């Protein structure tokens, strides 16, 4: 009897990644190695995964709607939603196609869990999507769907929405939250101008790391919902849109452990990435 090997697809983890500052990876900086470690992390991101994903679902800090809104666009363009950067950064390309089937799956799962949703058939990829993914998946050959944040940025709302999407991971869909663990623009601008050695955000990053890697998963959930009470929280996030994608990816791995997979100090602040599952 002929023996045939069976290829098993393992459940994809979920990831929260820092997407940097605007089109930072495609610019000249002083010093020239400013973004090297961050870029290397993104280049090596596929090596963290058990399989090549069949599709990507990504939540970016740069898209908020009154209700969860799903991008349903076969060929999304790029939204150059940054200003004041070199002309060449407005010529970038990342032609990943959309996935209409996945978009409808996401909508059905969210609505089954009691969420109101909307479909956007025109939206392109904002820079929280194409900037990091152009580094991680430069061939742009994996279909990608973007999901918005919901206005109010409530941790529990996004966490529960993430829980409703967990089953996608068993279908080889990679769920990514794209934001930053530190996002205080005035502090970052001072870091650029003064090239300070004082690194902002360590208190909050230390709290976040300990909270997310807590093996008591119910305690991890509670701490995440109360993130704004943590040391340095509002200094790191005067407004939490760059942290909110983390709430959703943590929810989509509610029963699984987390580990920190990246940390770097850049532009006077600390930025970290986390993987669940």
N- and C-termini, Cα separation:
38 Å
What composes the largest sheet? Answer: 6 strands, mixed
Order of helices and strands: EHEEHEHEHEHHHHHEE
Shape: globular
Strand content: 15-25%
Question: Major sheet: order of its strands?
Answer: 5-2-6-1-8-7
- Taking Cα atoms only, what radius of gyration do you get, to the nearest Å? 18 Å
Detail the poorly predicted runs.
1-6
How many β strands by DSSP?
8
Q: Percentage of helical residues? A: 25-40%
Total count of helical runs of at least 4 residues? 9
Task: Output mean pLDDT.
Answer: 94
Class from secondary-structure proportions:
alpha/beta
Give a structural overview.
The chain is built from 9 helices and 8 strands. With 277 residues, it is α/β, with parallel strands linked by helices. A hairpin with a 2-residue loop joins strand 7 and strand 8.
Can you give me a brief rundown of this structure?
This protein is of the alpha/beta class. It contains nine helices and eight strands.
Write the layout of secondary structure elements.
Blueprint: E1 14-18, H1 36-43, E2 55-65, E3 68-71, H2 100-112, E4 117-120, H3 127-136, E5 144-150, H4 155-164, E6 173-179, H5 185-194, H6 202-212, H7 217-225, H8 233-236, H9 244-251, E7 258-266, E8 269-276
Helix pairs in contact: 1-3, 4-9
């Amino acid at each position: 009897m002929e023996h045939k090997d069976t290829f098993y697809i393992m459940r994809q983890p979920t990831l929260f990644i820092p997407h940097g500052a605007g089109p930072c990876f495609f610019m000249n900086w002083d010093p020239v190695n400013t973004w090297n470690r961050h870029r290397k992390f993104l280049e090596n991101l596929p090596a963290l995964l058990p399989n090549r994903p069949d599709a990507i679902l990504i939540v970016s800090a740069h898209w908020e709607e009154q209700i969860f809104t799903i991008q349903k666009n076969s060929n999304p363009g790029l939204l150059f939603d940054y200003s004041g950067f070199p002309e060449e950064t407005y010529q970038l390309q990342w032609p990943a196609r959309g996935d209409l089937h996945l978009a409808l799956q996401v909508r059905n799962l969210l609505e089954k869990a009691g969420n109101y949703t909307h479909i956007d058939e025109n939206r392109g990829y904002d820079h929280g999507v194409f900037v990091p993914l152009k580094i991680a998946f430069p061939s742009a050959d994996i279909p990608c769907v973007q999901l918005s944040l919901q206005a109010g940025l409530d941790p529990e709302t996004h966490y529960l929405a993430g829980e409703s999407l967990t089953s996608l991971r068993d279908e080889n869909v990679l769920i990514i939250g794209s934001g930053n663990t530190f996002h205080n623009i005035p502090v970052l601008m001072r870091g650029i101008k003064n090239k300070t050695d004082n690194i902002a955000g360590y208190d909050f990053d230390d709290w976040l790391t300990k909270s997310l890697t807590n093996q008591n998963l119910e305690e991890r959930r509670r701490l995440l919902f109360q993130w704004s009470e943590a040391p340095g929280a509002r200094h790191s996030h005067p407004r939490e849109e760059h942290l909110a994608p983390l709430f959703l990816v943590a929810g989509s791995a509610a029963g699984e452990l987390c580990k920190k997979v990246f940390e770097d100090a850049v532009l006077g602040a600390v930025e970290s990435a986390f993987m669940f599952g």
